[in-house]
Amino acid sequence: MFMWKKKPTHVRSHEPLDTTYSTIKGLLDDLIESDDFISYRYGPDEAYRLSYFQPLIDAAQLERHVLPSIAQKVEPLEKLKETISIQNCQVHHQVKEVQNKVMQGFGMITNKDNPTQALLIPLVRSEGRAVSQPEVEFSVLGPKEAFVESIDTNLLLIRKRLPIPQVKIKEIRVGSLTKTRVTVMYIDGIADEENVNTVTQRIKDIHYDEIVDSSYLIQMISDNPKSIFPQLVSSERPDRITGELGEGKVIVLVDGSPNVISGPTTLIEFFSAFEDYFMNWTIASAMRLIRLFAVFFSVLSSPLYVAILTYHYELIPMDLLATLISSRRDIPFPPILEAIILELAIELLREAGARLPTKVGQTIGIVGGIVIGTAAVEAGITSNVLLIVVALSALASFTTPIYEMSNTIRLVRFPFLLMAQFLGLLGVFISGIFVLGHLLRLTSLGRPYLAPVFPFRFKELKDTFIRLSFRYQQSRPVQMRPEDSVRSQPTPSKKGDD
To answer: Which letter, b or e, does each residue of 206-245 get, where b requires 16 or more Cβ atoms within 10 Å of its Cβ?
Structure first.
C-alpha cells in the first residue's frame, strides 16, 4: 500500500482564495491545471481560443450555435458576438468578471490579436434528470439536493457551491473492463498535498476489472480494509461535501455512483449530522450528545442485561429485581439465548424491510415487530423487559447519520453479548478495551482516527462532542493538515447598539 512520507512542516502565509488575476492569460494558465477545464484553438489560422469547464456547459449548444460561427472567418469579438445566436453574450475586459462568468458555466472566446478581452457565451448546462432529495441523509433543515449517478451532474452540484478556480480535479480511469471515471477533487491552497497525493496514488494502484460504485473504492483505498469501522465518509449530500472541501479534505467522485467519498476523517464525524450547522449551536450540541449517548446505549444495553442477570444480581435494586424475576419466571432460556433470539429477530426485520419496496417494507417493520414481539412474550420465549431493552437498542442505532457506521454498531453488539455471558461485567469491560485499542490504532489516510481526542488537542474540541458558535471556529481542523488554516479573521467585540 502506498504511503507518502510526511513533508516538513512550514509556515504558510495566509492568502485569500479569491485571487484577482492581472490578465486573462494568467487566469487561463491557472484554470487549465484542472482536468475538467477545456481550452483549445479553433477557427481560421487558429485565431480563436475557446475555453470552458466541461461539466458546466451544454455541449449541444456549443456545437450548434458557437462552433459554426467561429469556423468561418476571423472578426473582432464585438462583431463575432452578433453572429452567435445565443442571447446575453458579453465582451469583457475585467478579469474578475471573466472569472466569475466562466465558473458559472459560460464559454469564453479570446482572439490571439487582442488577448486582453474575452467573449463570454452563456452555455450553462440544464439537467435532464431532476435532482432528487436525499434518502439516507435526509434532514428537515437545509438544502434538499442529493447526488445522482452522473459524475458531471455531481461536479456541477459542487462547483456551483464553490465558484472559485482553486477547486482542482484530477481525473483517473479505473477498472480494466469498466474504465470508470474517477475524479479526485480538492481546493488548492487548503488541502494538504500529502493527502491529495496519497489518495491519487492509491487509486492509480488499483488493479481490478470492475469499479461500479464508490463503495468499491472505499474498500480498496482504506488504511485498514479488515476493520469493521469505516475510515472514509460516504455522503449523498452536496452541502456536506462542499463543507468538507472547505475544511481541507480530499473528495473522490465515481461515475455511476450517487455517493461521494471524503477523507481523511475521524470517528466523531460519523455521529455529526450536517443539519447540526443549520440550527442554533446549543440545540445542535444537545442533539449531538444525544446521538453519542444513543451509540453507547445501543452497544451496551443488551450485554449489560445479560451480564447483570447472569452474574451480578446484587447490582439490581430490590424493587426492580422483583419485576425482573416475575418477567422471567416462565422463560425456559438463559438470558444470553433470550437476547440473541431477540437481536436476530430485530436484524431479520430490519433487513427484510430494507430489501422490500418502500411501502411494504414499512409495513413489515411495524406490523412484524409488534406481532413477533407480542407473540414471543406470550409464548414465554422472552421476557417483556428484554423486549423493551432490545427495541430501544435498535431504535438508538438509527440515530447515527452515516449508514456505514450504523451497520458497524449493529454488528459490534454481538461480541459484547458473548463476552458478557462468559465473564459478566468484566467481559463487557474487556470487550470495550479491545474496541478502544483497535480505534487507537486506526488511521484515515494516515491521520489519527480518534483525533482530536487522541492525540488530545483541547482547542479542536470546538466541533466534536459539541458544536460551538461559528465565531469560535476561525480555523480549520488541524488534523486535516490544511495548508491554509485560517477560516475567518476574528471580529472585535462591540458594545452597545450597532
So the answer is: beeeebebbebbbebbbbeeeeebbbbbbbbbbbbbbebb
